[in-house]
Amino acid sequence: MEIIALNPTEVRPDYSADLELARRCATGDERALREAFEAYESLLRKLIYRNLGSREDAEELVATTFLKFWKSAHHYRGISSLRSYLTRIALNLCHDASRKRRLSVVPEPALPSQEEHPLAEPIRQGLLRLDREDRELLSLYYLEDWDYNEICDSLGITYDVLRTRLVRARKKLRLTVEENND
Questions:
Q1: What is the pLDDT averaged over residues 136-142?
Q2: Whose CA is closest to 167, among 149, 146, 141?
Q3: What is the CATH number of the domain that holds 22?
């Protein structure tokens, strides 16, 4: 990915390769869809699983994500990465699935085991008590290892909003973990 300058004070990544892949999908090129699937399927499956807690739902929604992308690839403008674009589709599908099912139980986030890290269980329990937005944000940043730009693009928020939300989400998680350890 090449960095290009849109104006002297702003530098943005060049997503022309992503734009070309989306253009090929929009014209019905099945190999292009296969390329996108091979590049992003694993990431999306993990993300959906962390949000819904069901492997079956993750498999189904990954397929639905790519089907929606296949039908709407002509809308992708290359302003953010294709990864961010597909993630937004997948997260919207997760939100829709959660609303439809009116889940009363929050899925358990996938974290290292207690043996791998002594705070894994308290953190897991703390994440379960956070609202969906905070849990999603912390998962993208810490569990998926996304950088600020990717999260901003995917969630459609500014850098300052992201920083503020991350600080608040960390604080909520810390307080929840401390309350449970007392």
A1: 83
A2: 141
A3: 1.10.1740.10
